[in-house]
Amino acid sequence: MHFKQVCVWVTMLLALPVFALACAPSSTPTPAPTLAPTPSSGGWTAYNADNGLGGNIVAALVVGPDGALWVGLRDEDNTAGVSRFDPSTGPGQSGENLTRYTMDDGLPYRMVLSIAAAPDGVMWFGTFGAGVARFDGENWTTYKKEEGLPHNEIRSIAVGSDDTVWLATKRGVARFDGQDWTIYTTEDGLANDNVYAVVEAPDGAVWFGTEGGGVSRFDGESWTTYTTRDGLANDNVRSAAVGLDEALWFGTLGGGVSRFDGETWTTYTTAEGLASNIVYAITVSPEGALWFGTYGGGVSRFDGENWTTFTEKDGLADNDVQAVAVSPDGAVWIGTEDSLSRYVPVE
Predict the structure, then answer these.
(1) Which of 93, 148, 201, 262 is the most buried (most CB within 10 A)?
(2) 96: pLDDT confidence band, cut at 50, 70 and 90?
(3) How far is Cα 182 from Cα 173, in angstroms, rounded to an integer?
(4) Structurally, how many domains does the chain consist of?
């Protein structure tokens, strides 16, 4: 079993379960107007509801195996849901093809908190209160508490090559093997049932970032918890990712980010160059640089030696960042509380 954190990379395809589920038939996606990106300074471009995006509050970003960018929106408007950028027309170009998926198409709820993509393009969407949805390009399948979830608010999703999917919820975590859901809580060894992040390490162990309990590691049999007593920056963990060097990174609520190489914890804060000590998102670029989405400080890039921060002054749409993704072409997509930003380094 090997996969990386939701909103960065995922690697799995699930078979449909044999029991009855809430399934939506194939439907034509909600028509979207031609997207006209708003130019900004330097290599920045902004997308929002005014120029074709389904909403303004971006909560999740994933680049699919075909290069398409999937955008999860948290607006309360019914036009929110999910927006997909078609890479065939070229990101950032006027006339770019954009497809919206809403509740009218089969999405169970308009507010999407998390996204994961399987290698063949099957998509998973975690919603704010309506469970998780699977979309194979034609049909939608929704799983809720009735099907075995611990809670219908899905904060993070990780999909693995052994045909399992992990969900982080506010009432524990859930594992799906293609047939059944298995729930894990504090009774089993989880540090706290309020879980915000899930990621798998290269050794196959699954890590969970919790509210107030630190991070828990599960190897399939036993649980181990790490807190500030062990070297974690803060016990309120909001994001997680695995670097190309296989080290684990955890973004916290007020303590900055912590890196764990299996033996030693190292913490980075504003004192070292991080934009803010509240880190809601972490992603890793193809060349190995880490990007951190922060609350109030914009987005920071760390190459292992140097820190670079981008804010509204540079062209970022908003300094409250909820999600970050990097396209294969090197473009950085940044989801904020007020629009989606695309950054391409200027030569």
Answers:
(1) 201
(2) low
(3) 8
(4) 1
